[in-house]
Every structure is written in structure tokens, then in C-alpha cells.
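ESCALATION

Customer reports they have been waiting on this structure for their group meeting. Please prioritize. Original submission:
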Amino acid sequence: MAGVLLKVDDRELKLLLPSLEQKLQSGIFKILGQVFLSSIEEIFEDEGPPGAPWPERKDKKKEGKILTDTAALRDSITAEEQRDSLVIGSDLVYAAIHQFGGEIRPKTAKALIFPFQGETVFAKVVRIPARPYLVITDEALEEANDAVEDFLTADA
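Update from on-call: job pushed to the front of the queue and completed.
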């Protein structure tokens, strides 16, 4: 055969791949989960992601931070490690409407009935503004990149 032949010996690389895969499965998602959950806590504390504050409440008399009256939503957010992914979210039935916004309408009655500012309100529709809390901020991405780099180079 005329020309140039380049032969690559990848035996050492093939020996390293199983240990890299095992290393990745042995904790990287746990570390990333901690990074992202910490970032989400900051979003609740700051009442919105950086540069995108949540819409204010209609009830100006109500004290405390938005979406944290009982802290149930904030406290329900978990990071679940799976074989090859990380799932972050809440299983509360009202979590999605706060994340994406939407309308609530009565299913069987003619109106929704609820207390508001000391009075009983009857409404055919209630509009909930989007208040995204499951947001990966630039700062969280940077921190995640650093965490992955540290994780992969530890004991190297």
C-alpha cells in the first residue's frame, strides 16, 4: 500500500472508559442536583430569576415573599438522580400553574369561590401569571460546569 498509514492504539482509552462511566454514575448527578436546587432556592428568595422578577401579587395587603406563604412549593422541589439523567421538579398539583401561568375555571360549579382581602369572591376564571422558578441561571450553569470539572479531575 502506497501512501501514509496512521494506526491509533486505543487500548488504554478503552480501559479508561468503564471507570469514567462508573465515576459519572457514582455521584455527578447528586452534585449537579445540589447546585441547581441551591440556585432555585435563590430564585425563591429573590422572587424571580436574575433580570426577570416575578409579577407582583394582586393582594397588596398580604405580607411575605411571593410563592412562599407556606414554603410548600419551594420545599417540594427535589432533584432525582436517574441512571443517565437528573430530574428536578415538584409533584404538587399547583406547581405547573405557578411555573407556566394559566387560567383556573370551575369544573362543575358556575363560579370559583374563595376569600380575597377579607371578602368572599365569586369568579368564572382566575388568571395566574407565570412565575418561573425552575430556571437554570447563567450562574448555576457556571457553577455546574466547575463542579463537573472538579468531579472529573478529582483523584486524577
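Sent to customer with the following note: The CA atoms of residues 27 and 93 lie 30 Å apart.
Escalation resolved.
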